[in-house]
Write a sequence for this structure.
């Protein structure tokens, strides 16, 4: 914020001497000297591989300018000359941000650089006045994205030479579903993997193996159709964090994300497939219990999970409530309809709960429980190539209906 003294408006009159003029120039020089540099403190990062929020406090109101760089992907924020008082522990790699650097560019400019683990988009960069304490804070929200989205942002930047203004979220997060002239893109997520084996059947069948086998067969069937781009979050027995699975879907600009699982339950008589969509409130106690187990996958693998702070959580909840949810619901209904004709379903087969892996803000997503490994008949079906073929055919038909309804079916 500029704090220049305007000596000409003090009404000195005709008797003002050169001494006052010199004093005025000296004061102006002092106000623009290093003594007036900003002070930045309390740097914080929160989030995961999909969305990150960065907050940094200032003693005065800063006037930042930001721009993007690639190779590697970076967000660069330029500030007036700033003294940084930052705890080095807060700069450790976290989520989407893998490196943070800061320093002085010249006598007038300082710079903060966030290097990311892959392409991203800037959701918003704001300067806000602190409510309960003196000073201001810079708040930067970024989200993982595809290379195309990052390149488009670079192109806009080249035309506008950079700006602190951001695109309205309704435009930034517009669904990609139904892109004309492009193949419908599906990301299949074989649940669990590596150290996280998931559920185990009565005869020793392990969920991570069932999900990878089924996902591979479904991918091959969809690719053979020729109308789709199909990717998998993992193609071998490896561990992936839940947010990494979501990030992969976003990087591929997926039109649909299907997470494949096979659960167990203490009631051995329960069997059949279930389709889940995301919700902050579970449809029933069983759905809540399943979501809790799946959401613990990262912790079971020995990775410390830090919950997002309230501000980040509020942002994610707001994003989830957008049109993505209605598209997820539409596909879930189609999927239940197709599976009901070929594969056994449980009662009330479309359920919902707060699955972390379904929280991509702009990718319609479902979690499909193929059956219960705790039921001997379901376990045998899941190991049967004939049964898996029928299930894959039903899923393919549901995808065709969904893609056609959004205008993306066909090559």
């Amino acid at each position: 914020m500029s704090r220049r003294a305007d000596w000409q408006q003090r009404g000195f009159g005709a008797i003002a001497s050169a001494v006052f003029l010199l004093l005025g120039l000296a004061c102006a020089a002092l106000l623009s000297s290093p003594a007036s540099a900003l002070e930045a403190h309390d740097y914080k990062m929160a989030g995961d591989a999909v969305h990150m929020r960065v907050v940094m406090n200032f003693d005065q109101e800063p006037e930042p300018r930001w721009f993007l760089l690639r190779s590697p992907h970076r967000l660069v924020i330029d500030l007036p000359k700033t003294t940084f008082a930052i705890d080095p522990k807060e700069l450790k790699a976290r989520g989407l941000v893998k490196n943070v650097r800061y320093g002085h560019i010249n006598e007038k400019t300082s710079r903060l650089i966030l290097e990311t683990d892959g392409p991203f988009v800037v959701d918003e960069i704001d300067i806000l006045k602190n409510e309960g304490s003196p000073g201001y804070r810079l708040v930067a929200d970024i989200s993982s994205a595809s290379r195309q989205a990052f390149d488009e942002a670079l192109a806009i930047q080249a035309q506008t030479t950079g700006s602190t203004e951001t695109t309205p979220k309704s435009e930034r997060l517009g669904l990609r579903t139904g892109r004309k002239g492009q193949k419908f893109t599906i990301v299949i997520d074989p649940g669990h993997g590596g150290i996280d084996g998931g559920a185990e059947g009565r005869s020793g069948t392990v969920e991570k193996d069932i999900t990878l086998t089924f996902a591979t067969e479904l991918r091959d069937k969809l690719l053979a159709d020729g109308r789709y781009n199909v990717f998998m979050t993992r193609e071998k027995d490896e561990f992936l964090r839940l947010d990494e699975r979501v990030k992969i879907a976003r990087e591929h600009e997926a039109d649909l994300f299907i997470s494949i699982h096979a659960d167990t339950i203490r009631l051995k008589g329960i069997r059949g497939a279930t389709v889940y969509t995301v919700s902050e409130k579970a449809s029933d106690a069983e759905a809540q219990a399943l979501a809790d187990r799946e959401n613990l996958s990262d912790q079971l693998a020995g990775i410390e999970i830090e919950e997002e702070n309230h501000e980040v959580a509020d942002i994610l909840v707001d994003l989830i409530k957008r049109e993505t949810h209605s598209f997820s619901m539409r596909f879930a209904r189609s999927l239940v309809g197709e599976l009901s004709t070929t594969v056994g379903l449980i009662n009330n087969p479309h359920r919902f709960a707060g699955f972390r892996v379904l929280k991509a803000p702009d990718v319609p997503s479902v979690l499909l429980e193929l059956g219960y490994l705790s039921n001997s008949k379901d376990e045998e079906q899941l190991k049967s190539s004939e049964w898996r073929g029928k299930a894959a055919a039903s899923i393919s038909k549901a995808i065709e209906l969904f893609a056609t309804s959004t205008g993306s079916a066909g090559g």
Residues 36-172 form a domain with the Immunoglobulin-like fold (CATH 2.60.40.3500). Residues 385-405 form the longest helix (21 residues). Residues 54 and 228 are 37 Å apart (CA to CA).
